[in-house]
Write a structure and sequence with these properties.
By secondary structure, the protein is an all-alpha fold. The chain is built from 14 helices and two strands; from the N terminus they run H-H-H-H-H-H-H-H-E-H-E-H-H-H-H-H. The termini are far apart.
Length: 326
């Protein structure tokens, strides 16, 4: 499905949601008077970026996720410097979309200088990245301020990893105040768009265990395709996270898990691991059969994630340049 078909789907699927608890300082109307064009500016920049490269929707969603899990949603993932989070092991040569955030910030500084935080830009860019990939629309609570320091060690230890067990991932979600079943499964569903490098899943393809060269929970035909892709490369070749529905935000990711076509071990583990069978498998099955339920739960979960320890009021600052503190 092409970009414009995705766009139509996204605008059609605007969900009617019940109330979601957020910090009282955060509000979708936060910039109503101080920067009334913020939504249009972010939307238009993300639209151009996704039109130019469809994968960018997934990259912007991932930036928001990786920001919120370290120091809370404070824009610290954007900071340059050798000790920055973008150079932590889970992010190095992996996170993308910084140039899109820079373009949005430049446009906002021109329209309403020193007003819109980089943390809020990340939240809005993620929303439009999902929308322009055919996913749901939602009101983003705003009013976050930007952190003054990055936390590279926190990124190394706190971000969920594709190599983590399901219990470890659940623990990392719990550590930041998220639900250990619905949020884990719904936000994992963000892998319905995007790609992953061979380095993140080749452990499933070669010398998997003493009894099996390939992960037995990986479909044999898919394993053969991935072996051909990865065996002679440097680990940077990429494969779609959601086979046969690469660029569309839908529930196909969960359908793939049921037929053992999850790309990452942490994805397939939601359905096939012993830990997943006891905690997350039932919800995977629900989402595979009910796209609307997945979309609704995803929206609730990403709003909760966007509410992880935001800086508000006089805390932090509003950066003029998202890459450096003022």
């Amino acid at each position: 499905m092409g970009f414009y078909q995705n766009l139509v789907l996204g605008f059609v699927l605007v969900l009617s949601l019940g109330p979601i608890r957020v910090r009282s300082q955060l509000s979708p109307n936060f910039y109503q008077n101080s920067c009334p064009n913020v939504f249009n500016i972010v939307r238009d920049n993300v639209f151009r970026a996704v039109r130019n490269e469809t994968r960018m929707g997934a990259s912007l969603l991932r930036l928001h996720f990786h920001d919120c899990f370290v120091n809370g949603c404070d824009g610290s993932v954007l900071l340059d410097g050798s000790d920055g989070e973008k150079f932590a092991r889970p992010n190095l040569n992996s996170l993308r979309g910084f140039d899109v955030i820079d373009s949005i910030k430049t446009a906002l500084e021109s329209a309403c200088s020193e007003t819109v935080s980089c943390a809020d830009i990340l939240a809005l860019a993620a929303k439009y990245g999902v929308l322009f990939s055919g996913g749901p629309n939602w009101w983003v609570p705003l009013g976050r301020r930007d952190g003054l320091v990055a936390n590279q060690s926190g990124a190394n230890t706190g971000l969920p990893s594709p190599f983590d067990s399901i219990d470890t991932i659940i623990s990392k979600f719990s550590a930041v105040g998220l639900d250990t079943t619905t949020d884990v499964v719904a936000l994992s569903g963000g892998h319905t768009i995007g790609r992953a490098r061979c380095a993140l899943f080749s452990n499933r393809l070669f010398n998997f265990s003493t009894t099996s060269s390939v992960d037995p929970t990986l479909d044999a035909s898919l394993a053969a395709e991935l072996q051909s892709l990865c065996q002679s490369g440097d680990g940077n070749q990429t494969a779609p996270l959601d086979q046969n529905s690469t660029d569309v935000f839908d529930n196909h990711y969960f359908k793939n898990l049921i037929i053992q076509k999850g790309l990452l071990s942490s994805d397939q583990g939601l359905y096939s691991s012993d830990e997943g069978i006891s905690s997350t498998k039932t919800l995977v099955e629900t989402y595979s059969n009910n796209a609307t339920q997945f979309m609704c739960d995803f929206v609730h979960s990403i709003i909760r994630m966007g509410n992880i320890s935001p800086l508000t009021g006089t805390q932090g600052e509003i950066r003029k340049n998202c890459r450096v503190v003022n």
